[in-house]
Every structure is written in C-alpha cells, then in structure tokens.
Amino acid sequence: MVDNSLQPSTLVHILIRLMHTEKSAPSKQPTQQFVLGIETSCDETGIAIYSDKGLIADTLYSQVELHAEYGGVVPELASRDHVRKILPLVRECLNEAKIQASDLTGIAYTKGPGLVGALLAGSSVARSLAYAWGIPSIGVHHMEGHLLAPMLEEDAPTFPFIALLVSGGHTQLIQVDAIGCYTLLGESLDDAAGEAFDKTAKLLGLDYPGGPALARCAEKGDPQRFTFPRPMTNRPGLDFSFSGLKTFALTTSQANTLNSQTRADISRAFEDAVVDTLLIKCRRALEQTGLSRLVIAGGVSANKQLRASLAELAKKQAVEVFCPRPSFCTDNGAMIAYAGYQRLMAGESDPLCVQAKPRWPLTNLNASLP
Ligand code: KG4
Ligand code: ZN
Questions:
Q1: Residue 13: what pLDDT?
Q2: Which of 300, 303, 309 best tests ligand 1's pocket when mutated (most atoms within 8 Å of CB)?
Q3: Element (H, E) at 354
Q4: Rounded-to-integer distance, Cα 69 and Cα 198, Å
Q5: Which of 246, 330, 336 to mutate to test the pocket of ligand 1 (most atoms within 8 A of CB)?
Q6: Residue 1's pLDDT is what?
Q7: Domain-embedded: residue 369
Q8: Which CATH number goes with the domain that contains 231?
Q9: How would you classify the pairing of strands 137-141 and 106-112?
C-alpha cells in the first residue's frame, strides 16, 4: 500500500522547520572537519559522518522488505521511503558521533547515477541542510564512492590501482591513478554482473534480493553437474557480457526438472562462470597495465566465492587485493562521506540548485588532488 500522507510538500515543511529550529554553523574557522554523507541512489538510505579522525558514525536503513513483495525495486516507493528516513538517520548519526549539527563542516550526497526520484530525495535534503547550516555541499558520483570504499579500511590501497566495480548497474574495470583520475579499461556490453545475478535468481524462483539469495543457493550446488560458458574470455580485451549466462540458466532450467537440487546446481554453475570470468579479466587488466594492486567494490564484491577466488589470486601471484568489508561493498553512506570529505578538502563544492544525474559516466569527473 502506498502511504499517501507523504506528499512532496512534507519534505519542504520538514526543511523549513529545520531551517528555523537548527542553529546555523558559527562563522569561525572549524578546528576539525566533520562531513555528513547521504546515500540514496537506490533502495538503501545510508547516512554517515567522516571526520579528520576517520569514520565516526555510520547508519543504514534497507528498504528490502518494502520492495520484496514486488520482486524488485519500485522507484516511487523508494523515493518516499528515503524522504521518511533521511532526517531520523541524520539525527541518529549525530548522536552516535556525539557532535551537534553545528559541528558539521560539509555535506556530501550521491548525485548519481541511480533512480532519479531517490537521488532527488537525498540531494534536496543535503542541499537544504547545507543552506540552513551555512556549510558547503558536494554531489558525489556513486561509483566513485564504491571505488574509494577500501580507503575506509585500515589496510587501504595506495594509488595507482585497478578497480573492478561490480554492482547492480555497473561492471567496469577502471585504472585509478588518483581521486578523479579514472581510465575505463573495459565494461559490460549488456547486463551488469549484479543485474545478471538478480535476473537469474528471479527466473530460478529464488527470493529477492536475488544476488545474495543465488549465492546462498549455490552453496548447496554440485559444481560438476552443469558447466556454463565464460563469456568473452576467449577473445582479447577487457569488456564483459553477462546476459548470455542468464539465458543459459533459463534453457538449463527448462531442460531439467526444476527441483531444489537443480536450482542449487544451476546457481553454482552460474556463480562459478561469473566469478571465473571476472577473475580472468582482472588478471588480464593487471598484466596489461603492469599494476599490482587490485580493488574490488560494489554489491557483487560482497560475494564470498569472488572474494575467496581473489584471495587465491593474491596468494599465487604478486598481486595485492583489497576488498572492503561486506557492509562497505553494498550501498552505504560511509563511502559517500569519505569521497565527499576528500573533494571538499580539495576545495570543491557544488552550487545550491538541487542536482541529480541519473546517468553520469565516471570518467567525466574532475581530478581532485589536494
Ligand atoms: O552496489 P550495490 O549495493 O547497488 C548498486 O549500486 O547497484 O549492488 C547491488 C547488487 C545487486 O545486484 C545484488 O544482487 C548484488 O549487488 N549483490 C550480490 C551479493 N550481494 C549483493 N551479488 C552476488 N553475491 C552477493 N553476495
Ligand atoms: Zn552501489
């Protein structure tokens, strides 16, 4: 059921109230930087605070239950739920960090890519709060957030490195020379890896969200029963194609009785094929560029099999692999707070007009060298 009590004007009223009740930031130079991060590109409301001392607050509200009955994200419901959750989570974060709103020195929000309504919910709140509190705000590229997420860990990579970005909307291999210096080496020509996981899970009748459900199902699968192709690995280049694997899963499921063991065996064959393909292309990207550090990021990098295979790669070859903890692989506010902190420290900020970029190539970003 759609909650009609949440009209767009509700947000405006909340903001006007906030602007009148919250104290503006003092004009003196802050001694410490505290950047609030707001992530609302899809179905997770992620709010966090990154300071000079690192990450000091991190909260997440997942809309999974809301969308589960529809078997996928319903964009309108997602936007409404973000509107409902952002401000309570901002307060929760301030409490967790033990700071006041007036201590904040900047706000970072996801400007794109993503669902336009969801992005607008986050960017309107971020910019309105920044205006009310008299601090700068910056729109962050969602995939830049993902690729910098390993920087939140103690064992952070140094530049340059190769990043494998694997999420619901992207599968890309990027050479990262510095913040904002991104060269696209290859990408999926059709479905993103996460999208292929989700679609295959759906056709197998697995739960939503599909990626983690398929990975769980694959754990009980027999790796010998079916063998799926490793698309585009027998020709040169670093591009991917995953839509054929989904079709392979469909025809295999139609040719066999689809009981729980067959589901698990198909899931296993599918997962093995995706993981192997990603691994082959990562190795190729490292060879081609002569680099020895590999970062994996985005929702699919939470996949246990992929992480285990990359750990093997690191053991066998002179390669360092950096995988953020699973909660920093999927969408979260910490990665946006971190990327925004870096860009604000480099003197960047965005004008006040509310911005959202549902489509936005990562390679179009400015280099941000402090
Ligand atoms: O980065 P993310 O949270 O959101 C986007 O930016 O898209 O990635 C979500 C994607 C979904 O397709 C989801 O099914 C997939 O990541 N995913 C997984 C796993 N956890 C999330 N895929 C495979 N195995 C997982 N454990
Ligand atoms: Zn994401």
A1: 55
A2: 300
A3: none
A4: 15
A5: 330
A6: 38
A7: no
A8: 3.30.420.40
A9: parallel
Phi-psi region of 50 (alpha: psi -120 to 50; beta: other; left: phi over 0): beta
257 exposed, middle or buried (CB, 10 Å; 0-12, 13-18, 19+)? exposed
**Residue 242 and residue 274 in contact, taking contact as beta carbons nearer than 8 Å:** yes
Same domain, 135 and 193: no
CA nearest ligand 1 atom 26, residue:
303
Give Cα separations from 160 to 52, 112, 291 (angstroms): 23, 24, 7
Give yes or no for residue 367 having a pLDDT over 90.
Answer: no
Has residue 11 got a pLDDT over 60? no
The least confident of 19-28, 94-103, 208-217, 304-313 is: 19-28
Instruction: Mark whether 301 and 181 lie in a shared domain.
Output: yes
What are the counts of helices (DSSP H) followed by strands (DSSP E) for the chain?
A: 12, 10
Residue 2 lies inside a defined structural domain of this protein: no
Q: Is 76 exposed, middle or buried (0-12, 13-18, 19+ CB in 10 A)?
A: exposed
Inter-residue contact 114 to 142 (CB < 8 Å)? yes
Domain assignment of residue 1, yes or no: no
Sign of CA dihedral 171, 177, 179, 180: negative
Task: Indicate the length of the chain as a whole number.
Answer: 370
Q: Is residue 153 a part of any domain in this protein?
A: no
Nearest ligand 1 atom, CA 329:
1
Q: Tell how far the Cα of 50 is from the centroid of ligand 1, in angstroms.
A: 24
Indicate the number of domains in the chain.
2
State residue 348's pLDDT score: 96
Q: Whose structure tokens read 């295959």?
A: 200
Q: Are 136 and 58 in a shared domain?
A: yes
Q: Is the domain of 205 the same as that of 108? A: no
CA of 172 to the centre of ligand 1 (A): 14
Domain ranges, residue 312: 158-323
Task: Assess whether 39 and 69 both reside in one domain.
Answer: yes
